[in-house]
Amino acid sequence: MSDFFKLAYDLIAKIVYFLVEWVVNFFKGFVKLFVTGWADYIAIFNSYFGYFTLPLKILSILLMVILVAIPIVLIVIIVRKIVIGIQLRAVRDDNNTLYREIGRLNKQVLELMDEKNKILAMKVNSTTGLPLATTAGLGVEGAAATMTPVPAGGPPIAAAAGMPDPLADPLTAMPGAGTAAPAGGVAVAGGVAVSGGSTAIDEDALTAAAAAAATAAASAKSLAEEKERSSADRFPKLSLVDARYQEYEPPEFDNDVTLQQFTENYRLFAASQMHLYYTPEIVRRFVAGMAASKLLILEGISGTGKTSLPYSFSRYINNPATMVSVQPSFRDRTELLGYFNEFSKRFNETEFLRALYEANYREDPCFVVLDEINLARIEYYFAEMLSVLELPSKEEWVLDLVPTAWPGDPIKLESGKIRVPANIWFVGTANNDDSTFTITDKVYDRAMPIELNERADAFECDLQPRCCVTAAHLEEMFAKAKEEHPISESTLSRMIKLDTYLQTRFKLAFGNRIMKQMYDFIPVYVACGGTELGGLDYIVARKVLKKFESQNVTFVRDEIKGLLAYFEKNFGKTAMPDSRSYLERIQNLY
User: Fold this and answer.
1) In 10 A of CB 199, how many CB atoms?
2) Is 502 helix (H, G, I), strand (E, B) or coil?
3) Nearest to residue 511, comparing CAs of 481, 484, 480, 546?
């Protein structure tokens, strides 16, 4: 027996050896054919190519190209077959999964239809008094035929009275469902004739009844949606504002105060009641900035009172500012205004939106402080507001919140839109460090930047009360300042010369927007106790020369000396200190 196993082992081992040898020789031949055999091919080619004529040389080259292309094409075909096979396998797997899911859904549909038929049979049984076994096999049309039973020899009670049967199904309770039965005990109910236990179905009547039922269902759905809209409160925060201002009584306004008194009294109020100290120059710039733009940007080092300035100013006019902390995640308008949640049917309101809405109820100036305004890109999340505030007519200052109005919406919303009132100002605070974004020229051109880099010295003063003024009176004071302190011809002439010089040397221009801000800022600045040249100096330094930061470093450094000499020649050695200081700082920086 052992000799037999030895024989079997030797035979199987020899067969395996030959198979392995065949596979190895196959791969060796493949390697020689496509890899190592190229040296022999080239040697054969060279041995003939040398003495061939030109036509034979061309044919030889074409032959070599074809021989090289054949294995490449074979390899490409094999790889493509493999890739297509893998893709087809994946598609088959996906199709099998899809077929199984379709089968499962079909099964659920059949189960639901069966359940529906059972429920309908139970309903028919409860209204007709027939056994469940009888009505279960009737289906929808058969069930309709049994909804109004007819006593032998006469019409149903409800039909005889000309009214729908209160116990009948809606399909048979339609107009014309009950008619008198003719002699012989035949009654017609909803287009179904019943006589001697047999039924004849009027298909047109059933179709009309089904259409009427569908119309009634659609009408009921529409009424339900209308009821939901009338009772829904999409803006709970804004509705609370409506409720709070129903019995609101405005304070007594001091509309006789002058602009200089107004600014000086604020400085005393901040010092005496809030222990916050500001120089008269900062207060002048802040109030004059309000006359020039609806957006003010307070810049400077930390701890100089950027946030406390608008906060204390709003306390001074007895209308505390709304504080909004800007987050680095702010990307678009929804961060400020909120958005409508289609699932809950409510608007996700923000404090910014509430403050904007509440300002429509008030007559005094309102402030919204955007703290750390450049933690995110203001030109993204504040873009729509920047565009709206640029519109010349304040009647066009509106923002879309929702597409349509609902009956329960707040009072001050008009067709889903909120108005940006003229009595609101936006104040942004900005730190210039590595954690913040650079504020672009687009924003600077529209805003009024105010720099706070120094703390004012503390001083003692008597207790100063608040001063309540209307926004309309504040605008009147601004307009009066422009009448009483128009920009002089000499200053205008120097402005035009400076504009020409900057355009020639630096390709910088004031622009129409900056010129308009000058005409608004400088008279109010003068009315608050400043000088005309001081107002011009501040505008040039913060609005025009700031554009140097985006220009070529070497070019600016070489030209600044000439610009400093120009300021000294045309404005005097001691004039324009802000502009000169700013240019020297840029020169030292570069």
Assistant:
1) 14
2) helix
3) 546
Q: Which residues pair with 430 in a beta bridge?
A: 299
CA dist., res. 424 & res. 369, Å (int): 11
Q: Quote the DSSP letter at residue 408.
A: T
Q: How far apart, in whole angstroms, are the C-alpha atoms of residue 270 and residue 279?
A: 11
Tokens of residue 94, six digits: 């996906």
**In sequence order, what are the residues at sequence separation of 6 or more whose Cβ sits closer than 8 angstroms to the Cβ of residue 554?**
590
DSSP string, 538-551: HHIIIIIGGGGGGS
Secondary structure class of 463 (helix, strand, coil): coil
Contact partners, residue 400, CB within 8 Å, separation at least 6: 416, 417
Q: Which CATH architecture has domain 294-451?
A: 3-Layer(aba) Sandwich (3.40)
> What 3-state class would DSSP assign to 193?
strand
Distance CA 151, CA 28 (A): 100
- The tens digit of pLDDT for each residue in 525-558 reads 999 999 999 999 999 998 888 887 766 656 666 7
- Residue reference for tokens 């004739």: 193
DSSP lists the bridge partners of residue 424 as: 366
Which tens digit of pLDDT belongs to each residue from 457-492? 899 999 999 999 999 999 999 999 999 999 999 988
